[in-house]
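subagent[fold] <- orchestrator: predict structure for attached chain, return tokens only, no commentary.
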Amino acid sequence: MHHFIYGNGVLHAEDVALPRIADEVGTPFYCYSTATLTRHYRVFASALAGLDATVCFAIKANSNIAVIRTLVELGAGCDVVSGGELQIALKAGASPEKIVFSGVGKTEAEIRLALACGVGQINVESEAELETLSRIATGMGKTARIALRVNPDVEAGTHDKISTGRKEDKFGVDWTLAPALYRKARALPGIDPSGVAVHIGSQITSLAPFEAAFTRVRDLVVMLRADGFDIRHLDLGGGLGVPYDHSSNVVPPSPEEYGAMVKRTVGDIGCKFTFEPGRVIVGNAGIMVSRVISIKETPSRRFVIVDAAMNDLVRPAMYGARHEILAVQEAPTSAVFEPADVVGPVCETTDCFAKAYPLPSLKEGDLVAFLTTGAYGAVMASGYNARPLVPEAMVSGSKFAVVRRRPSFAEMMALEQMPPWIA
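subagent[fold] -> orchestrator:
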């Protein structure tokens, strides 16, 4: 469910007509709904009722500080994968003890920052990282509470580029080798090996891969406790999918179904749980709005050329992702929908949002909205073709505010300078 609906023939974000934002902010822009963020967080958290659980929003899905602050005020912690994301989480008001630092390649500077801030958990992904963490923690007079991220070798059934729990993936420690690494962790100074972590991918549309991975983690916890380890924390990651293509028969499990599976699989294990949802919280809470530049007719195709591009929303180009596209001005019931390729102005053939997408008649200046772009939308944007980053707006009822403005070209170039040998 989301709060982007038609009212009086115009697409609204909650009670704000999208043309109103476009007139003030310009296009393209991202827009987030506070009501949708709030609802999605509460639905997910409620599905875990009965567990001692902390929901840590995965900042990599959307790093806008206003979005994160909204979730923090609802009780969320944060899952971060870089020093920059850690600082964003703190800026947004997240409690350090409710921050989990994940990631396969933490630098020494990032580890020092995490220890200095007192993050609640560091997820360790290799023996080399474990040794580095021990050395740094000891030198700082700290004890790092860790969870080893285990790789359960489970096929998540999602896109190859966002699968993270197979043995050929770079993430985690092979689950069969984990007991030996826990024994090493126990012997190292500055390390409290009190948790187990797992994360098998993103946009997962079946409960079976989760259940297979969690069952292996459960078995590992039983083995570790038999070996004298005080395993108190279980980090089950994120990855629950959302519906992008409503014409598809694939319907991801609901948070309630996911929560029931968690309770059935590991609910009686006697641990505190951490969950790291991203997309399922913020995906449907955001849209991208773009303006039609022109309609180009060729003997074989109809192109709708919009002012958004692959640098603004890279998912279709990178993953072949499909987003629902709506005309902001509601089409009459008698309208004929005809196929069109929706493309951007970037000088790349892959700058295409959809091929043969059924759309009503559009003209220059019309607005279109790309749905379900709250996750991995603005956060993955770039300045390719010297295009400014897209601004982000947030609505709450009848109010809206710009929560990240569009940079000027002067600001974009301010970081560059000539070397001394060029006049």
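orchestrator: received. Logging for downstream: The chain has a mean pLDDT of 93. The CA atoms of residues 117 and 198 lie 24 Å apart.
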